[in-house]
Automatic annotation (TrEMBL):
Source taxonomy: Eukaryota, Viridiplantae, Streptophyta, Embryophyta, Tracheophyta
Protein name: SUBTILISIN-LIKE PROTEASE SBT2.2
Organism: Salix koriyanagi
Gene3D superfamilies named among the record's database cross-references: 2.60.40.2310, 3.50.30.30, Peptidase S8/S53 domain (3.40.50.200)
Record's keyword annotation contains Signal: yes
A biological-process GO annotation: proteolysis
Length: 428
């Protein structure tokens, strides 16, 4: 029973005899007290001679149908995906997509012992990822049957780029936001709720263009994650030492682009392969909030089996403390392929007084906090380090990257005075 949902709800389970569901122990006590007080017993044998209790069914609940499907359930896992043990957001979109997974009626092994209520049953109705995954596995098998040469990445691409963003009424797919009354507490789903969207079986069998990646690409990506070598060795049997170069998540040829932190501008490339006949595509896009996008080429002709590279130039126009989303689409007649885009933008920030008179520029940042407190943020590659200082503190030194930073509040000095300046970052 779920007492937080209006009218209560119960997952359907087999019941051998007619029964009632009582939602709480207190309600059970009331029923038992009435039952016992209504019995008549033989004074000698104490056997029940008459059942005096009566019951009626009153009221009840009217079934409410939203007529809107699909929607993301409140218990469904959400993104973003953590990159490593430091829980920084990864440049990888999760979830990938969504599929039917709520109250799915399907075959069940009568010998199963993991769910006592379904023992001996040949069918069961359940919810969760375990119900959605078989739908995807079945569709993947159909795609592999039609395209035997497809890699796992190609199959995933076909499923993602053809997924639907809309429900059966033509409105945006909704996501439930709360455990209590989930159909009331909901809002349009974002890519962190549904990934590329709701799987489209028909579209996935005719994707037109695919984003393909090799096994070695994924190995290079995994080996580039901090502290991943033992995990990779355990699951693959391969040593990361054999991979001299690594790939960042943003550079994997995925059917999505995720930039956890966009510092000013960046160019991202994606390679598409045509698995249909010769076609001419045009490219369109909607940019995330605070960001401008340019894609080249905006129109291209691609032969069957040919590969083309799309270059996506992304420029942050303002600071944003939250993620925003966009889409890049390729269009040919009735065929539409969508690439999900997410980023959090960080453009030029506040001007810091008394910084120094040097004309510096580099991927580092400083931000002044209230009063005499100072927050220095140093960024080197993927590693960020914060220092907090006050006017009363002595000079602080730290080796960040390849050169020494000297901090003396309220001014920031670089002891070796290279031609660099911190790239200014927004305060948290």
């Amino acid at each position: 029973m779920d007492p937080f949902v209006i009218g209560f709800q119960l997952n359907p389970i087999p019941m051998r005899v007619p029964g009632i569901i009582i939602p709480s122990p207190d309600d059970s006590k009331v029923l038992l007290q009435y039952y016992n007080s209504s019995l008549e017993r033989n004074e000698t044998t104490k056997q029940i001679t008459r059942f005096g209790s009566v019951a009626r069914i009153l009221g009840g609940l009217k079934a409410n149908y939203s007529n809107s499907a699909p929607k993301v359930m409140f218990y469904s896992a959400r993104g973003p995906d953590p990159e490593d043990s430091f829980l920084n957001n990864a440049d990888i979109l999760k979830p990938n997509l969504v599929a039917p997974g709520n109250l799915i009626w399907a075959a069940w092994s009568s010998l199963g012992t993991d769910s006592v209520e379904f023992q001996g049953e040949n069918f069961a109705m359940m919810s969760g990822t375990s119900m959605a995954a078989p739908h995807i596995a079945g569709l993947a098998a159909l795609i592999k049957q039609k395209f035997p040469s497809f890699s796992p990445a190609a199959i995933a691409s076909a499923l993602s780029t053809t997924a639907s963003l809309y429900d059966n009424n033509g409105g945006p797919i909704m996501a439930q936001r709360a455990y209590s009354n989930p159909d009331i507490n909901q809002s349009p789903a974002t890519p962190f709720d549904m990934g590329s969207g709701f799987v489209n079986a028909t579209g996935a069998l005719d994707p037109g263009l695919i984003f393909d990646s090799r096994y070695d690409d994924y190995m290079s990506f995994l080996c580039g994650i901090n502290g991943s070598s033992p995990v990779v060795l355990n699951y693959t049997g391969q040593n990361c030492l054999s991979y001299n170069s690594t790939i960042n998540g943003i550079d994997l040829n995925l059917p999505s682009i995720t930039i956890a932190k966009l510092y000013q501008s960046k160019t991202v490339q994606r390679s598409v392969t045509n698995i249909a006949g010769e076609e001419t595509y045009r490219v369109g896009w909607s940019a995330p909030y605070g960001v401008t996008i340019k894609v080249a080429p905006t129109r291209f002709c691609i032969a069957s089996g040919e590969r083309k590279v799309l270059s996506v130039f992304v420029d942050a126009k303002m600071n944003s403390s939250t993620a925003s989303y966009g889409r890049i689409g390729t269009f040919w007649r009735s065929r539409v392929m969508l690439l999900t885009f997410h980023c959090q933008s960080l453009s030029k920030s506040h001007i810091i007084p008394q910084l120094t008179s040097e004309d510096w520029s580099a991927p580092y940042g400083v931000a002044m906090k209230g009063g005499s407190d100072l927050l220095l943020y140093c960024q080197w590659g993927k590693t960020g380090v914060y220092f907090d200082m006050t006017m009363n503190s002595s000079a602080s030194y730290g080796m960040i990257g390849l050169f020494e930073i000297q901090v003396r509040a309220p001014n920031i000095l670089l002891s070796s005075k290279p031609r660099i300046i911190p790239q200014l970052m927004p305060e948290d």
